[in-house]
Design goal:
heterodimer; A: about 170 residues; mainly alpha; Four Helix Bundle (Hemerythrin (Met), subunit A); B: about 450 residues; 3 domains; 16 helices; about 70% helix; disordered C terminus
């Protein structure tokens, strides 16, 4: 019961702040709501007993990326940004994409009800004491099962980093 | 409705102890911070050959309370052009993040609010890093150039130094192989050596980075009063200002606690577990007793009756603490059968003493630096972070890792680990000197060009 209440609190918070993030005119307010959405998602991670993901979400997204976002936003002249048109005029494309996505989700939910064992698998959560420690589990899958993918991703990030440095470097 | 009440009851039944602990900490911390400020002022006065606060209470002992009352009843000003909501939110965010991160800390083997969380030290570091939002948003919301400049500086500084601090923590954590705070301290007990000995370079990096992260002098550029009035706090007054202040000092306590836990043996006595050094168990009570007796000696010198009474009560308080510290040590000697019963009390009380002692020493070092070293320029600060500390910390992680593998190969433990970690530290130091030399060579020509840096202006 407590789990359910907490889940709905976090999920509602995430959805509401995501909606607010899109609709606010002030970019800094949008950023604050994005932080709230990310924190609420972190809360859901914690509920799934993935405490490592929870803290990584907070450190990387909230503590790292969002700080840089706000840093950049503060350098932008907000008074000019407020006058501009905020939304791109792509109503019809957006409508089609949204419809396709919701149809997909709806189909999944519907089929999970109709065909037992075919839709979304609902796992019965084992008690926390029986789970392996989350950071160890993540480390094992990262450096064991998915080592190649992990290394490729890190090389990609390194390339991006070096590229950024090269582009930012002044011509001499 | 019934279900909601049931859920609340379940929640309270499970979590009443951490909730209570949290309430106590939130209630007591402002007082502790007030007294840290008093110590800082007294120390500053001592180093500058003056007396510091003397009027309120004997030797200014009640000054923090007077200051708190003053701050609470001051007029609360919100600038006209400020973003009201964000202006209101920012200090709360700062102080909230700082207080929340305390939940992960362990003051003794039993006293920890979020007990035995798997991500222990990451939780503390990650949550306390969220406090930066308070600073950035506060500076932006005030709608003032000084504030904005201060918060820009501060976010740049925090993001840069967090990398170095994180890397330093990584080389410390390599030695334990766990993030759990309790397990980290127990590993130091089992090895019989504090990790500051095994990873001195990492400790040094963390020390420097933690000063920068808490915006303390010599890295207090975000609030450099000679150039930016008070940085991000310029437009804040009264209670809101004091919230920022509380957050800053709480962050100091948090970083010192992290350093104490990882590098200085947490709640362990020096040479814990070595019989030969068991006499160190008497040191805490002896120390408190000396302080108490000194208070009594000073009583006749107090000018007013009220101050005399206050001094006597402080003395008695110290003696009481000495007694509390003495009983768990003395009881097993008087009556050996009590040893088992007294053990948890011994661990809790003496653990708390040593932990607080080490944290205080760390904070004392912060203050000492503040009154000794002049403030850095912003480009110097950035260069120190990016060109010296971050490369050094990455090299250090590598070197410590190699040292650990070699140590494991020869089955080294405890003090014998020094055989491999000392060469590692020396290699890291040599690399550090090389980086410094290279940096100086390349910087010598551009010294003037660097000064025109955007943030330095």
């Amino acid at each position: 019961m407590l789990d359910k209440i907490l889940f709905y609190i976090f999920a509602g918070l995430a959805i509401a702040s995501a909606a607010l993030m899109v609709t606010r005119r002030n970019a800094v307010h949008s950023a604050i709501f994005l932080v709230t959405a990310l924190l609420a998602t972190a809360g859901i991670f914690l509920q799934l007993r993935a405490e490592f993901l929870f803290i990584v979400q907070i450190i990387l997204y909230v503590g790292g990326i969002m700080v840089l976002f706000i840093f950049v936003i503060m350098l932008v002249n907000l008074d000019v940004a407020l006058q501009q048109i905020q939304f791109a005029r792509q109503k019809w494309v957006a409508l089609i994409v949204a419809l396709a996505l919701s149809a997909q989700l709806g189909l999944m939910l519907w089929s999970s009800d109709k065909i037992p064992g075919q839709g979304i698998p609902v796992l019965a959560a084992p008690p926390a004491s029986e789970l392996p420690a989350n950071s160890e589990a993540v480390a094992r899958s990262l450096f064991g099962t998915y080592l190649l993918a992990f290394e490729i991703a890190s090389v990609l990030l390194l390339v991006a980093m070096i590229g950024a440095v090269v582009m930012a470097k002044k011509e001499k | 409705m019934q279900a909601v009440i049931q859920a609340t009851m379940d929640f309270l039944k499970l979590y009443w102890a951490p909730l209570l602990c949290g309430l106590v900490i939130v209630a007591v911390l402002p007082l502790v911070v007030g007294y840290i400020v008093l110590v800082e002022r007294k120390l500053m006065a001592d180093m500058q050959a003056r007396l510091g606060p003397m009027r309120v209470g004997p030797h200014g002992l009640l000054q923090p309370i007077a200051d708190a009352v003053k701050l609470l009843i001051k007029e609360d000003i919100i600038p006209d052009n400020a973003d009201k909501l964000v202006f209101w939110l920012a200090p709360v965010l700062s102080v909230g993040a700082a207080l929340l991160s305390i939940a992960g800390l362990a003051i003794g083997p039993a006293f920890q609010i979020a007990k035995d969380i798997n991500i222990g030290i990451l939780f503390v570091v990650g949550v306390s890093a969220m406090g930066i939002f308070g600073i950035v948003l506060g500076g932006w919301a005030s709608n003032s150039h000084y504030s904005l400049m201060g918060s820009l500086r501060s976010s740049a500084q925090l993001v840069s130094y967090e990398t170095a601090a994180g890397m330093a923590l990584v080389s410390g954590l390599l030695l334990t192989g766990t993030l759990n705070i309790k397990a980290i301290v127990e590993a130091q007990y089992n090895e019989g050596i504090w990790f500051v000995m095994l990873a001195p370079v990492a400790f040094f990096i963390y020390l420097v980075a933690s000063i920068a992260e808490t915006n303390r002098a010599p890295f207090d550029l975000p609030e450099a009063e000679s150039e930016l009035v008070a940085g991000y706090m310029t437009e804040f007054s009264g209670f809101r200002w004091s919230l920022y202040f509380l957050a800053e000092y709480t962050n100091m306590i948090v970083v010192s606690s992290v350093a104490t836990t990882l590098f200085l043996g947490g709640w362990l006595r020096p040479f814990a577990g070595v019989r030969f050094f068991n006499f160190l168990d008497y040191v805490p009570s002896l120390l408190m007793m000396i302080v108490g007796v000194y208070c009594f000696v000073r009583v006749p010198k107090q000018p007013v009756m009220v101050q005399k009474i206050f001094m006597v009560s402080v003395g008695y308080l110290c003696l009481a603490v000495a007694l509390v510290l003495f009983v768990p040590v003395a009881a097993p000697i008087l009556k050996p059968s009590l040893r088992e019963a007294v053990a948890p009390f011994y661990a809790g009380i003496h653990g708390a003493f040593w932990f607080i002692f080490k944290v205080s020493a760390y904070i004392y070092f912060f203050m000492w630096l503040r009154f000794t070293i002049p403030r850095y320029r912003f480009d110097q600060l950035m260069r120190l972070g990016w060109q010296f500390l971050i490369p050094l910390s990455i090299v250090n992680v590598l070197v410590v890792g190699v040292a650990l593998i070699v140590g494991e190969y020869f089955h080294l433990h405890g003090w014998a680990m020094l055989l491999v970690t000392t060469p590692a530290a020396i290699i890291a130091l040599v690399v550090a000197l090389m980086i410094l030399a290279a940096g100086q060579e390349s910087q010598a020509g551009k010294e003037n060009a660097a000064a025109s840096d955007f943030y330095a202006g």
